[in-house]
Write a structure and sequence with these properties.
The chain is an alpha/beta fold and about 650 residues long. It is built from 25 helices and 22 strands. The strands form five sheets. Strands 1-15-2-14-6-3-5-4 form an eight-stranded parallel beta sheet, with helices on both faces. Strand 8 and strand 9 form a beta hairpin.
Length: about 650
């Protein structure tokens, strides 16, 4: 089915509201006073909307598929969308056609729970849909229905592998409906991306579309005409003789794992950069000199570090010592403020960034490990010389320092979509931020089957060695019983320590380092086999179903082991949600220690109090104390995102006369 009506806008997007800091504060106060708008009433499979779709499907069973009939229904839906409110009477016939096509082409008929999620997506909400309830199929049917309503749809997946997988899996559905589809990954060449984005549905990881948006905003067509003038000029192959925009606008987006993308990664600045630029004389000799000078400084006397904030502050004595070391120095090392800043960056590289926790050495060089996902980000680089200081610390040649062409964060990018919605298993805890930043409400979706998950009592051990010994002992018992086991860790270093403990017991296991997402998905898909042990970081395999074998189901189902509290309890719940899916049996084991990163980053006083509580046998109180520290980290991250939003509003006001923030 080709486009039914001509396009009016070539680059549709929502113009962000220019709110002040006072506006933001008032919105926050209002959301705290009346939080009812943050949540929508929970829906389940018994919702009347699902019954209407089922009745329409029953009528379609008596009729052969007709493209003309689908076109007429889609035209009515498009007219309703333009009026701004989609009634069930016009949505149900189109959705029923899509569901029938999915059953016909894919052999998959959505459950009632998935049907009501699609209604939630049309409402522009975040659907809190339980892990294992079928988000991939729901997203594909929702994307097809949105595309039939006249929108160009972007489906944001967790990574490039899942984007390509979903595009290939659900491609026959879009073809059956007369829609075009495509996928974009980081290896897709720049030439031809414009044509790929002309598809009705595009699957991609969020960062790929974001960077293409930045290229449009900073490229040769950034300030060209919009509207009819632009369309007339574009008939000649570009605007004003220049190439056309890459994207076709920001019309509609479905975000999978929405809490991870919209909240956990919201404050990460994505920077479009160009190489071959030495910033103000910050060359390799200067970097080596500053690293050597920083290596002579001593903690407490010359600097103080904050593990929680990943920041170093020089003392007065430290600045004086640097000044004495810099006597006779040339270039930036001779400039006091710049010297102090570079020394602080070098100290962060020396004392705060650790190999296999914050970064990893690969064949291609240094790759950053994303803190919230545990995945390698080889295309990212720390700014202001920090990346180069880490490379020098590891004995590598420093990479070139890049010039920034444009920058944007997710919390500024996603509100520009004219229709935004998403799905995740843990959204209610982030409902306030989703409302304040994106104007989104959370809709809880009741599970299709009752939760059968069992929770074992929390175990807290004095140190890491005792924890990994206990994990290996539990693994031996469960493997002998034939139960599959998924051990979740916070960092790659923790995964390797766990693997070493399992090897010492002679236990065969799979270790996921998240370097190759295709292998990751395959390993996680096998994690439900009887007796299999899988060690993975918190985000590994997200988006891949763990299917239990019959023998594993008889042995008690998947056994999830939480070995450390993360910076946000939502991530813990995502890991625990890998078991007990759709009524399957499963058990959650929580084995923690006082040597976990959570305590190390929150100060010696907290660690001392928890250690005393453990010695006195107050295990429940000790666990509550760790949960309080976790809440402190969560609130600190929220404040950081709010502070970044304030800074960007300030920058936008400063640049109001010269152009856009990007």
């Amino acid at each position: 089915m080709q486009s039914l009506l001509p396009e009016i806008e070539e680059y549709p997007e929502r113009i962000p509201l220019g709110i002040t800091d006072w506006d933001a504060r008032i919105l926050r106060v209002l959301s705290q006073m009346d939080p009812r708008h943050l949540f929508r009433r929970a829906w389940g499979g018994a919702h009347p909307f699902a019954a209407r779709v089922r009745a329409e499907l029953a009528a379609l069973e008596q009729q052969p598929f007709s493209p003309e009939r689908l076109r007429d229904k889609a035209l009515r839906l498009r007219r309703s969308v333009r009026r701004g409110r989609v009634a069930d009477a016009v949505l149900v016939p189109v959705l029923a056609e899509v569901c029938a096509a999915a059953a016909r082409v894919l052999g998959k008929m959505p459950f009632d729970v998935q049907i009501v999620v699609i209604r939630s997506l049309f409402n522009g909400e975040i659907a809190e849909m339980g892990t294992g309830e079928g988000k991939s199929l729901t997203g594909a049917i929702g994307a097809a229905t949105l595309a039939l309503s006249g929108r160009r749809v972007h489906v944001m997946t967790v990574n490039d592998y899942l984007a390509a997988r979903d595009a290939q899996t659900f491609g026959p559905l879009f073809t059956e409906l007369g829609l075009t589809y495509s996928s974009i990954d980081e290896k897709t060449p720049p030439d031809g991306r414009n044509g790929i984005y002309r598809a009705d549905v595009v699957f991609s990881a969020a960062k790929n579309i974001l960077f293409d948006y930045l290229r449009d905003q900073t490229g040769p067509t950034a300030n060209d005409l919009r509207g009819l003038g632009r369309k007339l000029l574009s008939l000649q192959g570009g605007v004003g003789g220049q190439p056309a925009s890459i994207l076709q606008g920001l019309d509609a987006v479905i975000v999978d794992e929405a809490d991870s993308v919209l909240i956990d990664q919201a404050a990460t600045p994505f920077i479009l950069s160009a190489g071959e630029a030495i910033l103000g004389g910050l060359d390799t000799p200067t970097l080596r000199q500053m690293l050597d000078m920083a290596g002579t400084l001593r903690e407490i006397r010359d600097f103080r570090k904050s593990d929680a904030l990943r920041r170093v502050v020089l003392t007065d004595e430290g600045r004086d010592r640097l000044a004495r070391l810099a006597v006779g120095a040339q270039g930036l090392a001779a400039v006091g403020p710049v010297r102090n800043h570079l020394a602080a960056q070098a100290l962060v590289a020396l004392h705060m960034l650790e190999r296999d926790r914050d970064y990893m050495l690969t064949e291609k060089g240094l790759a950053i490990i994303d803190e919230s996902t545990g995945r390698l980000m080889p295309d990212r680089q720390w700014s202001e010389g920090l990346h180069q200081f880490v490379e020098l610390k590891e004995g590598l040649e420093p990479s070139e320092i890049r010039t920034t062409l444009g920058r944007i964060t997710f919390q500024r990018f996603f509100p520009r979509y004219r229709h935004i919605c998403g799905m995740t298993g843990t959204a209610r805890a982030a409902a306030r931020e989703l409302s304040e930043i994106y104007g989104l409400s959370v809709r809880r979706i009741l599970p299709r089957r009752p939760d059968q998950r069992l929770w074992q009592p929390v175990r807290i051990l004095p140190d890491l060695s005792a924890k990994w010994h206990a994990v290996a002992e539990l693994a031996a018992i469960l493997q002998a019983r034939g139960a599959p086991m998924l051990i979740g860790t916070r960092t790659l270093a923790a995964s390797q320590a766990c693997s070493a403990a399992l090897q010492a017991r002679g236990l065969a296991h799979d270790l996921l380092t998240a370097e190759h997402v295709a292998e990751e998905a395959a390993i996680v898909a096998r994690a439900g086999e009887a007796g299999r042990i899988t060690v993975a970081t918190n985000m590994a395999g997200r988006g891949t179903d763990i299917i239990l074998s019959d023998a594993a189901r008889v042995a008690g189902g998947l056994q999830v082991v939480l070995t450390e509290l993360h910076g946000n309890s939502r991530i813990d719940r995502q890991l625990c949600g890998r078991c007990g899916r759709q009524g399957d049996p499963g058990t959650v084991h929580r084995i923690l220690s006082l040597g976990d990163d959570l305590l190390l980053t929150e100060g010696q006083v907290s660690a001392f109090l928890l250690r005393m509580g453990l010695r006195l046998g107050l295990f429940g109180l000790c666990h509550q104390g760790m949960r309080l520290l976790q809440g402190r980290q969560t609130r600190r991250a929220e404040r950081g995102r709010a502070q970044l939003a304030r800074q960007e509003r300030m920058r936008e006001r400063q640049l109001a006369l010269s152009g856009r923030l990007e």
